[in-house]
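INFO batch 0412 | record 1 of 1 | parsing
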Amino acid sequence: MEHVTFLVVVVIITALAFDFTNGFHDTANAMATSIATGALRPKVAVAISGVLNIVGAFLSVEVAKTISGGIVDDKLVTPPMVFAGLIGAILWNLLTWLFGLPSSSSHALFGGLIGAVWVGAGMRGVHFDTVLQKILIPALASPLIAGFVAMTATYLAYTITAKARHDSVTRTFRFGQIVSASLVSLAHGTNDAQKTMGVITLTLISTGTLASGSGPPIWVIAAAGVTIGLGTYLGGWRIIRTMGKGITEIESPQGFAAEASATTVILASSHLGFALSTTQVVSGAILGTGLGRRLAQVRWGLAGRMALAWLLTLPAAAAVGGVAAAVATTGTLGVTIAALVALAASAGLYAASRRDPVHAGNVNDVPAVPQQVAA
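INFO prediction complete | emitting C-alpha cells
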C-alpha cells in the first residue's frame, strides 16, 4: 500500500509538471497577438493570462471527465501507464517549445496516454471511438472554423473602419484586445487546465481512491489551476514570438478578430466536452486574420512547419509514451529508470534553449526562419 501511495504521489507530481509546461507552452494562445500589437506590455500580459487561467479552471469539468473516463478504459489503467504517458507529453512539449513551434500540448497528452495504455493494457484499453469523436474530428475542424471566422471578422473590421483615422482605429482595437485576450485566457483555463485534472482523476480512479466515472475533487481543480497559472506567468516567450510575429504581421484589428474568434470556439468546445487544442484554434485564427486583411503577408513556410508538428504530435508522443510504459510497467526500478531518462532529456532540451534565449525584451523580433510569402 505504501508503494502504491508513493507511486500515486509521483504520478500527481509528474502530472503537475506537465501542467506547468502546458502553461508556458500555451501562453502564446492568449497573449501573442496583444503583445505583438502593443496592446499589452509582455510581462503585464502574461500576469493577466496566468490569473485568468486559474479562474477558468474552476468554471467547468466536462473536459476533465472526457479524459478521466473517455479516451481510455479507467478499469485497465495503472499509475505507471499514466506516468509513462505524461513523460511522452512533457518531452514533446519541451522539444516543440525549443523550436518555437506552437504544437498542441493537449494532443501531446492524449498521444502519450494512448501509447502508454496501448502498450500496457492492449488495444482494448483505448476507446478509439471517443478518440475519433472528441479529439481527432475537433482537431481537424476547430482551426478551420476559427480561421474562417477570424478571416471574416478581419475583413469586416477593415471594411467598416476604412474611412476612419488609422490611429483611432488602432487605439480602439487595442483596448478591445485587452478584453478579448483576457477572454482567451479564461477560455484556456476552462479547457487546458482540465486535462491535468482529468489525468490526476484517472490515476485516483485506477487505484480505487475514487469511484469509476468520478469528477475531479476540489483539491485537484485548485492544484491544476494554480500550476498552469504559474506556468503561464513564466511566459513561453519562444512560442509567443512565433505566433505574434512569425505567421503574419498583425495589426490591432486582426489581433482582436483572432482572439474573439478563438474564444468563441474554445468556450463552445469546453461546454460540449471536446478536448481540442487551443494552440491549433488560435493558430488557425491568426492565419485567418492574415488572409482576411488585404495585402497582408502570410508566411506559409512557417505555417507548413507548424502543420507538420501538429500531424506528428499524437504519434510522436504516443511512441515515447509507449516506450516509457514498456519500461515503467516492469516495477519500481522501471519507473525510476524512466524518470531519470526523462529528467536528463528535459535538462538537455532546456540547456539547448539557453544558446538562443527569447525573453520579454526581444519577443517582438521577427523569428529568423525560411519564409514563403503570399499576398
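INFO post-check: The chain has 14 helices and two strands.
INFO record closed
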